[in-house]
Amino acid sequence: MTEPLLMLDDVRATLRLRGGHQTLLDGVSFEIHAGEALGLVGESGSGKSLTTRAITRMLDPAFRVSGEIAFDGTSVLAMNQAALRRYRSTDVGMIFQDPRAHVNPVHRVGDFLTEALVRERGVDRREAERRAVVLLDEVGVRNPEQRLRQYPHELSGGLLQRVMIASVLLAEPKLILADEPTTALDVTAQSDVMAILDEQRRARGLALLFITHDLELAAACCDRLAVMYAGEIVEQGAHVYHAPTHPYTVELLGARPSIDQRVDRLPVLRYDRETHELLKAEAS
Amino acid sequence: MNGAELIGTERIGTEPIVVANRLRKVFPGPTKDDPVIAVDEVSFELYPNECLAIVGESGSGKTTVARMLVGLETVTEGELTVRGDSRTKGVKNLADRRRWAREVQYVFQDPYSSLNGRQRIGDIVGTSVGLHVGAGVTRREVQDRALGILDSVGLGQSFAEKYPHQLSGGQRQRVAIARALAADPAVIVLDEAVAALDVSIQAQILNLLSDIRAERDVSYLFISHDLAVVNQISERMIVMEQGRVVDAGVTAELLADPQHPYTRSLRAAVPRPGWKPVRRERLAS
Ligand SMILES: Nc1ncnc2c1ncn2[C@@H]1O[C@H](COP(=O)(O)OP(=O)(O)OP(=O)(O)O)[C@@H](O)[C@H]1O
Ligand SMILES: Nc1ncnc2c1ncn2[C@@H]1O[C@H](COP(=O)(O)OP(=O)(O)OP(=O)(O)O)[C@@H](O)[C@H]1O
Ligand SMILES: [Mg+2]
Ligand SMILES: [Mg+2]
Questions:
Q1: Which of A51, A138, A154, A259 to mutate to test the interface with B (most CBs of B within 10 A)?
Q2: What are the sequence ranges of the domains in chain A?
Q3: φ, ψ dihedrals at B206, nearest 5°
Q4: pLDDT tens digit string along B171-203?
Q5: Which of the residues A134, A148, B205, B262 has the least number of beta carbons within 10 Å of its own beta carbon?
């Protein structure tokens, strides 16, 4: 087996609080190979976004991180500033959960999209714009030329999310960390975006860490799934969707509302970390 | 089910709480001669104690409709009323703003930018509780109320002390929902409010929304692109495409047998076992 592109081994992130410590990532381990897609699912607040921030070393300085994170065999935690900068700008691309919090509101969409190509890669501005227009069109944005001249606040949530996706694809990284990249999109646009990510995986060996709440979507687009709960990966592998073994995953698969059927009350679940038991509870 | 009984009837004797009549919103485009028609002749009624869903493709104008309703955007043309009062002119002063906030609360699509980063979670929700309780209520009671509401969206006591940046995406979204609920308004506009939540928390919130409706009169304008969620929560829905309403009707009927091509394509693209993502056919241009 070849070396994984990304490897996390026993990663812990601890926050010092007034009365002690809080461990928010609790021994996270997984690997992603080139061209592979790993789906990361799990409950809200379980540590999925923190995991992506640990991978890019963008965690709040208040966190203490231990364990090993290696990209292409190089320790990320040991990188110096120059190496880290290169790693962030050319090796990994990040699609953030909350795009509006990650764009500069006074920069036009066109500048945002082309800036990195022009500055870091020396691509001619006109050429960079041409590529941006092609990609915007591919992710289903109508009138891409016009969009380049607009400001972020003039774009709807879903349009901005697709601008983010296009910007990451433009940089052609080896690994994309996609944190709920399609939550603001309707299902038809989601289908477009996922199909493009799929193509890129095959064509360029792009690796993908795909965070989502939609298990069906994760199963359709990823080779393996990892399930997170309270800072830990409780289960991972190719079997997770068809034959989950962990009680939390089993319940998760059954909890989704259906498009065909309306129920009186939806099932709510609680997994108890201490006893490893699932407590089925109704919202009060 | 109160709301369900109203479906399809003429609703004789019930006045709608929100009426939108041929609403239009035109934004100036990047250059002079290509204005953006974000909302084009949109009409709908929202009745007391019902949930009306708005679905539609990205950029179809859903959020713009919501922003006009809460006074964050002016109306270019058409009429928009809440309990018979026109909202077309936009908010003029602080008193207006407070009165509107008591009637209509808005859960923003991107909760991070809508929460004050310097306010603790407990205070964010507490301020909203203060909107509807009278002057006789103590600070303590307001706090307790805020904690109770946070708890009902699955955020325990420890969250009250935290700041928005210390929360996960889904936790922030729940703070935004808690803030809206705390004001106890007649209408809540929820813009993709459960999109960032895992199925279990999502279920908890959807159950909570229907419990509140069982206890007292509240109407939801529920913007979502998740048809399964829309099916669970709403009685009626409208479908928007490029600023226009292209389909409307009783949710269960529309979803069971979608007629409009866009509604059909939405249904077909819902991930399910065996589904694979495919690119839409693009128009040759
Ligand atoms: N800067 C921070 N300071 C303190 N706590 C934090 C900070 N960032 C995150 N947390 C906490 O860490 C936990 C994990 O957060 P994370 O954002 O990784 O969750 P998530 O799995 O991405 O959830 P969601 O699906 O809701 O986005 C949460 O309980 C959150 O409150
Ligand atoms: N301030 C603005 N200036 C110019 N155009 C705008 C402005 N706000 C919105 N628009 C445009 O109006 C259209 C409708 O946007 P809106 O945010 O209402 O869409 P939406 O249906 O909520 O989409 P999404 O599902 O992606 O959130 C889009 O084309 C958007 O770019
Ligand atoms: Mg997250
Ligand atoms: Mg919107």
A1: A259
A2: 6-280
A3: -65, -40
A4: 999 999 999 999 999 999 999 999 888 888 888
A5: A134
